# Entry
Amino acid sequence: MKNKIEKLLPVALLVAVVALDQVTKQLVVANIPVHSVGASFFGDFLRIVLVYNTGVAFSIGQGSGEIVRLILFKILPIVALGFVMAFYFLSDKITRLQRWAICGVVGGGIGNIIDRVFNPHGVIDFIDVKFYGLFGFERWPTFNIADSAVVVCGILLFVSVMLSKGGEGAEK
# Structure
């Protein structure tokens, strides 16, 4: 029973990420015109704006054809998330931290897939951060809660896997 609870509890994070992502996106769409600044914080460091992204990260693939976007940005991610969740529930080798991180990544993935499938304009992005010219960006590409969950939990998962691999190597 304990094993089932340890596997099911992190799913609450997945649900929370999807819910928070979708609620914030709908609030932005309802209150901010497209391509305009709805609010600024800390001068212009952080802005809430509304943009639509028909591509993936950094708008990659935005100009791709409809069939390519259907396969690469809708069908393939749904299949991949299905495999990840199957692995999640079938494996007993995933640590507790890795389970939480996986659910955060999957929650973010689902949040953006919902937009890709049900929003004809594309993924709703609204968090705009000043980047001071680093890596050639005056402003970081606009993102959303789902993107944040994928990045933060993805880094956490990567570090956790690397540290667990290091521990295995030391034991051998």
